[in-house]
Task: structure prediction
Amino acid sequence: MTLTYVLMQNLKRNRLRTALTLVAFALPMGIFVLAISFVVAMVQLAQQSEKQLRLAVHHKTTLTNLLPAGMRRKIEALDPDRSRLRAVCGMRWFGGRVPDTQNTLTSLAADADTFPIVYSDVGMTEDEIELWNRERTAAVVGTGPADTYGWKVGDRVVLESTVPPYLTLEFKIVKVISNPERSNFFYFRLDYLNESREAVGASSARCNIFWTKCNSAEGMRSLQAQIDKTFANTPDETKSEDENAFAASFTQANGNLPGLMQAMAIVVVFIVTLVAGNTMMMSFRERTCELAIFKAIGFQRGRIFVIVLAESVMLSFVGSLCGVIPTSLGLLYFPLTLTRLGPLPRLEVSFSAVIASIVIAVAVGFASGLWPAFQSMRLKPADALRKIA
Amino acid sequence: MPLPLYYNWRSLLQRRLSSSLTFILVAVVVFVLSVLLSFAAGINKSLAATGSLDNLLILKPGATSESTSIIKRHEADRLVQVPHVALNAAGAPLISRELCVQTSIPRINANKDPANVAIRGVDTVAFDIHQEVQIASGRKFQLGALEAIVGSAASQRYANLTIGSEITLGRLSNRIYKVVGIFDADGGALESEIWVGRTMLEDAYDRRFHSSVVIRLTDAAHATEAIQYISGPTVQLNAKQEPDYYAELSKTTAQIVELTTILIAIMVVGAIFAVANTMYAAVDGRKREIAMLRTIGFSKASILTAFIVESVLICTCACVAGLAACTLVHGSRRDFLSDTTWTVMAYELRITPAILAVAMGTAILVGAGGALMPALKASRTHVIEALRKA
Result:
């Protein structure tokens, strides 16, 4: 009589209970894998942007206060031999939206010369860079908006700005960014914006932010302090932060979804522990007599312990599969688009999230089986048999 | 004859461990549900309570919020002849030109992380238009003095915004405003703002334009006509009734609420299955007892109700416990940064009667839904067989 055989027989004995437990386990685990996928994606995003060694230099009071474009040269001059700093790219918020739609795209005008260097993670090829440099209306767009509006390379698209002077500009798409971290962005050339602003009599040559690409993490930290010190007590005091700190203020703007998802994941783990624990206690109580007989006919304590524990682990494992697999498949074919809810273009279940969910489910099964298993191990056959009879 | 409630209570106490596990499970679900709903309720309350249907908020066409809108003075002048504008006692039209800027103020929390607080420059006429704005303590600012009044939500959520404290404003951070009053605005979004005199603020930030103009109509019924006039060739600006404008600001939040509602609904279904599981075990364990009850004359219906009552009883107790835990967060202040205005809005987490009802309803649903099938099974127990077998 193998362990697996006993296990399967036990699970089959009360089919209704097994089914109910599986469902009660699977539903929260479905949520868990969703929540943990989101968290994992955010962590990966953070790790990626950390590697990019970009410093966000913006106005100390608020991002919406503009800085003079000439600040770029001042930042560059802080490191004339380029030992710490690689390039500076000034950006200005355009806040464009496709005519007759509501969603404002994360659209920014960027210094054309340094953009391909500072945003090397956009992955522009030589040809694309050449096109970007040649074409004044060139735009680089992430897969998020490209998929939503069906844009492809070579298309001419029109965006209306939601900030003064509310320009309507036409762009020519030169690249669709496949890199997931930049998939919700729309970049175009700052000189094109400035030119168009001047044409309607608006002042130009100002930026919201200067992205400063550094050579090393140490260089970035020293530059961060130096930049803020340089502009202290001027009309344009700056605040420099690394890309993650900068992004954190945006996630907060979106109702702190990552925090919410983390909380959800914790609650789910708690709930499934209760579900699994309850089931295991019930089946143990009903089977006290049987376990006592097992003991009486010579099963060792360790064996009994393993039988009870394995049942709990098995139940959680299958339960988590029932929750995780349909959710993953569902999201694979019907991806959840979150254009307004953060930096992720869509929520996909990542492989690491699936593994994490199953590992956690097994751990929950293990934890909730421990006490019943321990009790059955300590069972005194004579007492148990007497009590039942 | 129904079984006494006392019987159910004792039965629950009999199987202490599984009762308490069910109890904790339902309490957790209710707690999560109520906290999330209280977030939504807090935000919605602040936004819904803002503005009156009589007021039109006017922005530049193309702008999505006051912070991205620029109305030149001559454009605002064209608004003087909007039809059905209300007049004040002195006979002046109720048209308020306003300038919105923002500044960074640390939150009152452990991190002291900075928040973008909105500063609104207004003239005295604004108090006739935003009638919900009432001074709660202190006094109004004097025009021409570097004085500010602070919304009560902002004063509680952000550092150094009490009467007598100083706020540094201005493009060059060289205007020191003194807080002279705290105002209430019926719990609306304006309570998260700082108000100062408009002309001084324009000067401080070197902005020779307005962000928005708010006008009060004699009656909300004339709103459509006035909005048409404003978007027409004479004025060419974009007007909205105030509540519409603020409802749009909460769109992202609405999406999050939708998402979490779905997640919670799934959890609730999961909880129903968990309760069903427990109740089936309870029924199986008490076959003999049920048969005995039937023998002494309790009907099938009363057995059925007894099990449902038992399950609902524990879920209701759990619900009360979950809600009790929720009172810990009730009244605490949070804020959210609107991605449209790029300023923060403080709101209060509140457990409203509606939330109580939803939580209670969910708990009863979980209890009754989970117990229904097991209770049916219990009521169908074969009396003789059950008595003989056991």
